[in-house]
Amino acid sequence: MITVAVCGAAGKMGREVVTTVCGADDTRLVAAIDKFSTGVDVGEIAGCGACGVPITLDLTAALSDNRPHVMVDFSVPSAVKANALTALSMGIRLVIGTTGLSERDLRELDEAARAKSTAVFVAPNFAIGAVLMMEFAERAARYMPNVEIIELHHEQKVDSPSGTAMLTAQRIGAARRQAGVAADPLPTEQKLNAAGARGACEEATGQVPVHSVRLPGFVAHQEVIFGGPGQILTIRHDSINRASFMPGVLLAVRKVVDLPAGLTVGLDAIM
Ligand code: NAP
User: Fold this and answer.
1) What is the set of domains in the chain, with CATH numbers?
2) Which of 28-32, 161-165, 198-202 has the lowest mean pLDDT?
3) How far lies 33's CA from each of 122, 140, 216, in Å?
4) Which DSSP letter does residue 48 get?
C-alpha cells in the first residue's frame, strides 16, 4: 500500500487526484494540504465522500505526522518549489504536476533529491495522448522543420506558455538540430502589428514559435502545425476533462517509489 499526501488538494487537479488515490486498491490518502477549506474533510471537497483526512495548510506538520511514501503536488507555480524542497528535505518521494518550474528550479530539486537519496518525478503533462503528440511531433520535425505551436487552456491557468508547449518546442528544436535541418528564416519585410504577435520564440522554446490562448471553455489543448510546400500536417491533442490526467498520475505514484535518486522528467521516461 503506497501512502500519499496531496498538495493543492482542494484545487481542480488536486480534487481529481484525491478521488483517484482514494479509489485505487494500492494507494491510501494520508494527508491533504491546501490554502482553501482548511479543516474540512478533503473527500467531501473532492466529491468522493468523507475519507477522514482534513485539509491543512501546515505542510511540514502534515508530512512529519503522516510520513507518506509519496507527495503529489498540483498547487500553484509560486508555491511548488518551496513545497517540493520541504518534502525532499524529509526524504519523501515526489510527483509534481504543477507547471512553471524553470530549468534552474529543476536542477535544484535534482540536487535536493540526490542529497536525501530520494526521487522526484516531474511531468508537464500526465495525459498519455499528449506524450504521444510530442513523440509524433519530434518525428515530423525531422522532415518538416517549419512548425509553430498553439496551446489553448482555461482562463485561470496562470503560467504561459504551458509546460507541455515548452517541452514540445524544446524536443522539436533538438530533433531538428539532430537531423541537421532548420526552419526557413522569416522574410525580413514581414510586419508585426504587436509585440509577440509571432508567439514566444526563444532558446527556451527551441526557436519554435508558441502561441498561448486563455479562454473559458477550454481545459488543455495543443496543436502542433507543420507547414511544407503544398502540405500542412497538424497534430492535435485535447484533454476533454481532468480525468484524462489520472492514469498518468497513478502510474507516476506507483513508479516513483522505485525510481533512482534524483530527478526524472516526463511520462515517457516511466512508460
Ligand atoms: P487550481 O485549481 O488553482 O489549484 C491549485 C490549488 O493549490 C488551489 O486550491 C490553491 O489554493 C492551492 N495552493 C495555493 N498555494 C498553495 C500552497 N502554498 N500549498 C498548497 N496548496 C496551495 O489549479 P489546477 O487547475 O488544479 O492546476 C494546478 C497546477 O497543475 C497548475 O500549475 C497547472 O498548470 C498544473 N496542471 C498540470 C497538469 C499536468 O498534466 N502536469 C495538468 C493540469 C494542470 P488557493 O486557490 O486558495 O490559492
Assistant:
1) 2-122+243-269 (3.40.50.720), 128-240 (3.30.360.10)
2) 198-202
3) 19, 42, 27
4) S
* Ligand 1 contacts CB of residue 35 (under 6 A): yes
* pLDDT at position 187: 74
Centre a 10 Å sphere on the Cβ of residue 223 and count the other Cβ atoms it contains.
Answer: 16
Rg (CA), the chain: 20
* Residue with more model confidence, 79 or 204: 79
Cα 79 off chain centre by: 15
Binned at pLDDT 50, 70 and 90, residue 122 comes out as very high
Percent of the chain with pLDDT over 90: 84
Sorting pLDDT into bands at 50, 70 and 90, what band is 99?
confident
Beta strands in 67-218 (DSSP E): 70-73, 93-96, 119-122, 147-153, 210-214
Mean per-residue pLDDT over the chain, rounded: 94
CA distance 26 to 22: 9
Q: How far apart are CA 122 and CA 99, in angstroms?
A: 9
Cell numbers that stand for 135 in this block: 513523440
- Tell me the CA–centroid distance for residue 164 and ligand 1, in Å: 16
Q: What length does the chain have?
A: 271
User: For the chain, first and last CA: distance in Å?
Assistant: 21
Q: Is the CB of 125 under 6 A from ligand 1?
A: yes
Residues tagged active-site: 153, 157
pTM for the whole structure: 0.84
